[in-house]
Prior knowledge:
The complex is a heterodimer of chains A (433) and B (484).
Chain A: H1 5-11, H2 15-23, E1 30-35, E2 39-44, E3 52-57, E4 62-65, H3 75-86, H4 98-119, H5 124-155, H6 160-163, H7 165-177, H8 181-191, H9 200-219, H10 226-236, H11 242-247, E5 251-265, E6 268-277, E7 283-291, E8 305-312, E9 320-330, H12 341-354, E10 361-373, E11 376-380, E12 385-388, H13 396-403, E13 408-415, E14 418-426, E15 429-432
Parallel strand pairs in A: 7-9
Antiparallel strand pairs in A: 1-2, 2-3, 3-4, 5-6, 5-8, 6-7, 8-9, 10-11, 10-13, 11-12, 13-14, 14-15
Helix pairs in contact in A: 1-3, 2-3, 5-7, 5-9, 7-8, 8-9, 9-10
Chain B: H1 2-13, H2 27-39, H3 43-60, E1 65-66, E2 81-82, H4 85-97, H5 100-112, E3 115-116, H6 122-129, H7 136-151, H8 165-171, H9 174-187, H10 189-199, H11 205-215, H12 224-229, H13 236-246, H14 253-265, E4 266-269, E5 272-275, H15 301-311, H16 316-322, H17 326-335, H18 337-340, H19 343-352, H20 356-365, H21 379-401, H22 410-420, H23 429-434, H24 455-483
Parallel strand pairs in B: 2-3
Antiparallel strand pairs in B: 4-5
Amino acid sequence: MQLSEEQVLALAPDESSKKSGKELCNPAKWVSRGVNELALWGECQGSGSKPYQAQVDLVNIAFKCSCPSRKFPCKHGIGLLLLYARYKTAFTSTAMPAWVSEWISKRSERQEKQAVQKERAVDEAAQAKRRQAREQKVSDGIEELLQWIKDIIRNGIINIPEKGSAWFENMARRLVDAQAPGLAGMLKNIAAINFYREGWQSEFIDQLLRLYIVATGYRNSASLSPLLQQDLRSWIGFTQNQDELKEQTGITDTWLVLGKQLTEEDNLTIERNWLYGVTSNRYALVLQFLIRGQGGQLSLTPGLFVQAELVFYPSTVPLRAIVKNQIATEKTQQYKGFANWQEVVEAETALSAAWPVRSERPFIVEQLRPVYFEQQWWLQDCNHAMMPIKSGFNSIWKLLSLSGGEPLNIAVVGKEKLYEPFGVWYQQEYKIL
Amino acid sequence: MQTWEQIINTALLGTDKRTLAISEWPPELAAVAAQLQASVTDREDLFLQTAALAFNYRQCGAKPLQKEGLSITKAQLEEKQYCSPLALQTLKDIFDSESISLLQFWLQLCEAKGRIVTPEFVPELLNLGIPQKKLQNLVAACCGKRGEWLARFNPEWNFSTATTDTELWQTGSIEQRKGVLEELRKTDATTAREWVLQTWAQEDAATKVEFLLILANNVNEGDIAFLESLSKEKSKKVRDLALWLLKQIPGSPIVQQYQQVLQKTVTIGKKGLQIKLPAGLDESIFKTGIDKLSNSKEFTDEEFIVMQLMQSVPPLFWENRLNSTPDLIIRTMQKDATNKKFLPALVQAVVAFKDQRWATAFMQNSQVFYIDIIPLLPVKEQEFYSIKFIDQFAENIIEHAIKREDTWSIDLTRAIFIHTARSVYQYNRSFYSRYIHCIPVGIVTELEKCAPPEEYLATTWRNTGEYITRLLELKKQTIQSFND
Lengths: 433, 484
């Protein structure tokens, strides 16, 4: 597995680990260094008399270190990976010492056991029973949710800000109990609305209606197309079996990694990778869930062109996908974006007509220039049509500096009337903002 | 969209109190909404379904804002070349190291080579320039036309807008004005004074003090008229400072007056200098900051007055007065207990009048080491004496060394490090980071030699050494990247 410095740093549990890890990225700090196809290991001279033994399982990224740090991975793990990213030649040994081979073989034994468990025959009758029970639970939860929404509408939303987030979270918990985590997540988003901000009413009604559409849609799903049913199920929180997905034939293309968003929930980091297929002219969202201290299976570096086979989740407006095969990294390729905002909104209309609850999507829009109007920054196309940039966009100055007043091809993510730039093409090179 | 507002207003009050009116809705939407009204009986469901319809209608109909005539001025084309990729990579690493001193070093080289950074680095550099006022001119120079253009959109970056020194002097911040004045004073003392004169009436007392301190550099006879005119200034600080400056100009009336007094006071006899104040002493000297009464047990009142006068008289006066050489005068004075007391005053005069000949003479003949004299010596001698006396005067010597803008020799650096390696709390990482511009790259191989013998100190020093090595690698990389 090949991790870039950036990716290694993303594994660090906090800023100080990043910093300490960087300091250990120095061959002189390591008494021994080794690597083979299974593991990466090294002994780092710390303050103690014996050097610390740090090791990384390269097949399924995992760390182990003999230092007493409670952080995971510790600075030695980060430092070792950084060192490998920067000075590959410094890793001369390939024969695993005993302390590495023992750990690696224990890990592979455990994985084999897990695989055996997986292969055990599935009791189909029991599975069907479980599925039925769940669907019943979800239906009950939805009835309760609809009643709750109707109560709000009957009484008026004027007093909603006073309810406090606990009121929403209570309902969200009931939806979790009803095994509808997707709906619970939508409710949590409502709870997160800033009720002190002007215009909260519109935002609140928007979100409430989305919830209502999904809930009633599911109730009436029997009459809908299978794809729409899939959309509803995934928004409610039924998971898609990834192994089944992987068995399907995907779209093989050269995908440009437009950007990466990281969000954290409890101990889980959600990595949202936005991709664009240069031949298929399709956009994709590849999610990766990272548990603290474990590396991802995927390494998608923003700005790189990757040749890969992607399988899209079934949907009326396919966007989310999984990477079935990542073949190689390629050099810069040609691409074709939307010529102006009119083309973008037309595409948006088609998407919203098919699935009104959909979330934001990426777009490459050509020849946009940032302009300042009515106390905010906008992106203006060659026809003088413009869309506002999402407030709180941090990299406005970098965007502006790269533009210098000239139009640029820009990758944005957004929907309706708010877009956030991700990257720009500056002198034929894709730059992440 | 009016439809949406109607929905929000109904939702605010609740369907119990208000019914959604669809009469004024767009016809295509109203038609479907009317169908819903006919088929849905539950009030809340009817509202929610109608609203959901309008929600998607709004969403599907979102359009960009069409605004003609709105534009953005374009940045001017750059006149200078961009830095090499290696230089930019080094700059990135320097950002990570958080060493402002290295950043300054990088910017100085970049400016000297007439290069600029690529646009993606401009905002970060401008941001770094906000708190680092001293770097502002350099940042502005290295950000080129793009920086100038970008600063128009962010008032905090205004420092990059004025480019010529005259513009900076007229329109810049106080720090920038000080910066250009200081530079000009070094090369063209007369114009610098004229600049100060032009705006003098408008400056506040604190700024006047700052400017006078800058004029102390290269103070000369041309400044006399201006400095004398300051005796009527309101601020005592300004008046005192002007007087202090006048006392550093050999030709100024005040120095002349002191010389005349000393001419009559000091004679040479068998035991060296004989001191006796003349009768009918010109009382006006006491209005120029000379104290009548001694504040030290060592000096009589009379000696105290003479000592003060000696501080403000160029050492050359004594060569003429005593018809002797600096070496002889110093040696003679050292022999007599009373004369010896006046040597520090003479040293102060050497420092005030920046007399290099006398400085060297003091270093060669004096039994006492005068740290104040060090800056007056040629660099080689400065380093020689710094190394020689570092064990006794380490702190003072380091204090002087860090004021230097140039790079120390390996020998001096080693001598300093041997001392600093022992005081890990006083000289921590930030010390090395701050003065990395003075530290020569070549010291890397000698760091081990500077380690203290005590194991606990040696371990800390090893860690510090690694930190210094990393900074020096960046420094080396900076030099290399601008050499290509």
